[in-house]
Each structure stands twice: as C-alpha cells, then as structure tokens.
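Format notes (please read before filing issues)

Several people have asked whether sequences and structure tokens are stored in separate files. They are not. Every record keeps both together, in the order shown below: the sequence lines, then the token lines. Line labels are part of the format and must not be stripped during preprocessing.
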Amino acid sequence: MASVPEPRAAIYPGSFDPITNGHLDLIKRASRQFEELVVAVLRHDTKAAEFPLADRLEMIRDAVAGLDNVRVGSFDGLLVDYARRQGARLILRGIRAVSDYEYELQMALMNRKLAPEIETIFMLPGETFTYLSSRLVKEVCRHGGQIDDLVPPHVADRLRAMRRR
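Then the structure lines:
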C-alpha cells in the first residue's frame, strides 16, 4: 500500500512594505504548487516600515482574495518557530538576482541548522518582475512616477495617498 503524502504547507515570509506585483506573481504560482500557502509578514523587521503592520496585512489580504489556499498572518521571532506552529515544512523565498542569493542562502542554512525538518525552496520571479522591489516602488511613487503596473490597484492608491501627506 502506497503511503499518502503529508499535506504540503509553505510559508512565504517577508516585510511586504508594500506587496508588489512581483510578490503577487510568486504567491499565485506557489499557490498552485502547495496545498496551503501562508504569506507571513514579519512584525519586527530590521527595516523601518512605511506602512503599519495592520495596513500591510490588509493590503495582502485584498491582493490574494480569491486564492482559497492562501492565508495571511504575521510573526516575530524565529521564522522556523512560526513555520512549526503553522504546520509548514517548507519556506518559500524569491530570488530576483545574484545579489539576493547570498543573503537568502545564509538565511536558509541557518534555518536548516535550527530546524532540519523544514526546507527552504527558492523561486525565481516572472521575467517581468526581476527588477521589482518594494523599496523601488516607494521611491518611484515618492517622485511622482507611474506605479500602476508595479503593484495591485489598491496598493497604488495607498502609496499615492501617503505621498500626498
């Protein structure tokens, strides 16, 4: 008798300040690969967030509405502890360029040391999004540049509203 595979839940962590179409591309593609995907926002990031945690969570929830197997949550502390609490054995990370790889490899190896039962999987963004980052989107918006094709519409509205303040 063949064994039934364990449910495959994955965690996609990040600051998502704000969520971009690049993040959304990875979320949509990953949601087809895993039974459950948890988009997890880091509460106490080392970077100063432009948007408060509650706003980031709301923007992500709005962006993933309709993806039935995607949940949104937040965490602080060790990612592997959060993954265990969520029943996830996979961590999903996006790599846009070689410069991302070095940092992500270091994090993946530390997570493996802390929790050998949890694997890290890297996904490449769609070609359209290889250059895209939350930091760049905020910078373009600050200077009045076009951001409508970089983030979901509700996020673009919020970014422009912040710029007007």
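For reference, the curators noted about this record: Strands lie at 9-14, 36-42, 70-75, 90-94, 119-123. The chain has a mean pLDDT of 92.
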